[in-house]
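Dear colleagues,

For the upcoming journal club I promised to circulate an example of a predicted protein-ligand complex. I picked one with 5'-deoxyadenosine because it came up in last month's discussion. The inputs are reproduced below in full, followed by the predicted structure.
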Amino acid sequence: MDGNALSAAPAGKSRKLHILTWGCQMNEYDSARMADLLAPLGYGICPSPDEADLVILNTCHIREKAAEKVFSELGRLHARQKERAGAKALIAVAGCVAQAEGAEIRARMPFVDVVVGPQAYHRLPEMITRATREKGGVVDTSFPAESKFDFLPDEHAPRGVSAFLPVQEGCDKFCTFCVVPYTRGAEASRPVAKIMEEARRLLQNGAREITLLGQNVNAWHGEGPDGKGWSLGRLIREMAGLDGLLRLRYTTSHPRDMDADLIAAHRDVPQLAPFVHLPVQSGSGRILRAMNRGHTAADYLGIIERLRKARPDIAFSSDFIVGFPGETARDFEDTLALARAVNYAQAYSFKYSARPGTPAAGMKDQVPDDVRSARLRELQSLLSEQQRAFNRSFVGKTLPVLFDRAGRQAGQVLGRSPFMQAVVASSDNPPDFMADVIITSATQNSLQGDLCASLS
Ligand code: 5AD
Ligand code: SF4
């Protein structure tokens, strides 16, 4: 699968920039900000790498497959450039593969001009200028003392109806399978004033839904105007007062940081969507301990119960890893049992992938690939059935849908329900509105419906 291409009108810029993005929503945000940063240098987004003067690959290192894609894409880009006569485009590798591999990338692929980590990309304009002048490549994978957020331009291209807003970055949890604490660095929280300022700007530029982002978003404890550390629940209450904000989400949260205040926000704040992505990874106490998750299966189920009490219609999604080192058939049964107990609206599941430098990569009892594949199939079939049943349960009911894009066919609009379901309806209105929709049919991946009155 290819990364997602960021595409927008070139808007009269003299140089062309193509950005390919893999991985999480934070990477999507970072790609948009890189485009904002490079606009003053005359770069406008173009839809194809073949036309570009600069190609940025914003990469993901979470599993081996994700990281491998970067190198095959680089190989493809280089081959295409060699076939074409004329000036060579600059190539930059950003994101978590850049952070993890650093100068190694240039050793393997010397045609790469720039390597920049996720905490240093505010320096991209200067790096690109240097790379244009000098041969030999420019690498920056430092964790600078300054926060990149203080150096990103205030101006930004419109982000659409549904916008991401990072409030927290990095991770101190050190789950034994995960590269994030090494690639994104230590947990850091942005202050309330900066977040509110960015939220206001997003709303002025047409956003109606904001998703607060963080690798551990509910560990956010940014400084409030009172000089004290606020909780995410308090920030959500503050943001709910913003004019024009119809819907608020946050992702990705960690069970350990799901405090009483955030749970109460689900009861009290009508704009807060009744949908939480709460990764559990495994249902086995033994494996959760080996993963260093810091919670048991019972703790997790207790949180789900408290959230359901606070907001009875709340729905959940999760991440699962199957085949973590030492996982027995019995441990895997515990994972299936937990998934059955929660009954998810949707969930992501992955085969364990050993990542260099993480403690789990060196653990004994690595699970053979055929066993991991069989477990993944079994878990995915359960989760798919749950998702189909969840979606089917809405047929005949009405849901408020934020339509944010055109559908695949003419005269169709595509949006999201409060529970993140994709909803398709017929409408000739430009897709930038919230409306009630009567759901007429459902599949595993989407709902179809008819518009009732427009809500805004
Ligand atoms: N192998 C497989 N899946 C992983 N994830 C993180 N690290 C690994 C790994 N080494 C999954 C987790 C996490 C999601 C973003 O990716 O489920 O929540
Ligand atoms: Fe990785 Fe665990 Fe941190 Fe999530 S909480 S980013 S899985 S180390």
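Two points we might discuss: The chain has a mean pLDDT of 93. The pocket of iron/sulfur cluster (ligand 2) is lined by residues 171, 173-175, 178, 180-181, 215-216, 254 (CB under 6 Å).

See you all on Thursday,
B. R.
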